[in-house]
Amino acid sequence: MMELTVNTSGSYQIIIARGCMDQIGARAGKLFKPGAKAVVISDSNVLPLYGERIMDSLKAEGFSPSLLSFPAGEESKRLSCIEKMYAECAAQKLTRSDFIVALGGGVTGDMAGFAAATYLRGISFIQIPTSLLAQIDSSVGGKTGVDLPQGKNLVGAFHQPALVLIDPDTLSTLPPRYFSDGMAEAIKYGCIKSRELFDMIVREDISQNIEELIYRCVDSKRAVVEQDEFDTGERMLLNFGHTFGHALEKLYDFKKLSHGEAVGIGMVMMARCGENAGITKAGTANEIIAALKKYKLPTRDEMPVDKVLAATALDKKSSGSMISLIMLKEIGESFVDQVYRGRLAELTGVL
Ligand code: NAD
Questions:
Q1: 258 lines ligand 1 (CB under 6 A)
Q2: 0.90 cut: is pTM over it?
Q3: How many CB atoms lie within 10 A of CB 5?
Q4: Concatenated DSSP letters for 304-334?
Q5: Domain 2-173 - what CATH class?
Q6: pLDDT by residue (tens digit) across 64-90?
Q7: CATH architecture, range 176-348
Q8: Which residue's CA is the nearest one to ligand 1's atom 1?
Q9: What is the mean pLDDT of residues 284-311?
Q10: Domain spans in the chain, listed from the N-terminal domain onward
Q11: Residue 350: what pLDDT?
C-alpha cells in the first residue's frame, strides 16, 4: 500500500492499493459519524462493475448509502445531470454531515465533486477513481465542474475531496484506448517534473509497475497543487501540451481525437517550438514521440498549423495579445513563458 497526504485548504489522504475500494466503509468510518448517509455516483459502465462492492462496504460499516447512475461519456457532463444528483441528495435528505462518493473516471469525479461543492453550499465527497486518467490526475487537486455548450469545464468550483482511494485493479476492465489516454498524461508529468518518471515510462513494462507509476504522478500533482491550489501560477505547468491539444480537440469537435491523444500531439508541437527557439534541448520532441509511440498514441496530425494557431485564441491561458505557454527546458524541467501571440506564430513556423 502507498499513501500520500495532500495539504491544501483541507488536508486529505490518498491511498493507492490493490483492492482498496473495499475499505471505503472502514476508512469513511474514520471521517464521518456512524449512520451517515451517502450518495454513490457512478456512470453506466462503472456502476455494474464496482457499485455493489462500494455499497456492501459502506453498509457493513453502518452507513446508509444510495446509488445514482448516469449515462457514461463526456456528453453527460452538463448541468442537467447535476440537477439529477441534487434531486437524489434531496430525496435521501442528505445534510452537511453526510457525503457523496464519486466512483468512476474523470467525468464522474468532476461532476460528483461539483454536486458536492454546491449542494447545501458544500458537503464532503470521496473520490474512487477507476480510469488511469482519474487515478493519476483528475481525482486529486479539487477541480470540479461541468461543460457548457460553449465549451469544456466552463462552470466549476474548487472543492477538495475528503479522501481518495485509488485501486489499480480497476484498470483491468478499462478499455485500452482509455488506458493509452491516461498514459499521455503520465508522459506529461514526466516531461514537466521528472526525468526519472519519464525514463521509467519509456524503459519499463508499466503494467508490472502500475502502482509506482500512479504514486509518482499523484505525488507530482500533489506538489503542484499544494503550491498553487487555486491555479494562479505553478499549476499552469500541468497544461503542458494543452494549448495545441485543446485547439485540436476543438477543431475536430471533440470527435476525432481523445483528450490524451490531442495532448500528446500538443506536447510534441510545443517541444518542437521550444527547440526552434533554442529554449528546449535539441532532441526533446523526438524523445516525447518515442514515449507516445510506445503507448500507441498519435504523434502528429494533418490539421494545418495556421488553423491550430487560430484555435488557440480561445485558450484560457490567453489574455489579450499575450498567451502563457508551458515550455520545457528539457525532459523533467518546465516553466511558464508569457509571449505575444505573434511570437507563438513565429515559433510554429517550424511545424
Ligand atoms: P470518463 O470518466 O468518461 O472515463 C472514460 C471511459 O472509461 C468512460 O466510458 C467510463 O465509463 C469508462 N471507465 C472508467 N473506468 C472504468 C473501468 N475501471 N472499467 C471500465 N470502464 C471504465 O473520462 P476520463 O478519461 O476518466 O476523464 C476525462 C474527464 O476528466 C474530462 O471531462 C476532463 O475534463 C476531466 N479532467 C479533470 C481534471 C481535474 O483536475 N478535475 C483533470 C483532467 C481531466
A1: no
A2: yes
A3: 10
A4: -HHHHHHHGGG-TTEETTEEEEEEEEETTEE
A5: alpha beta
A6: 999 999 999 999 999 999 999 999 999
A7: Up-down Bundle (1.20)
A8: 105
A9: 95
A10: 2-173, 176-348
A11: 64
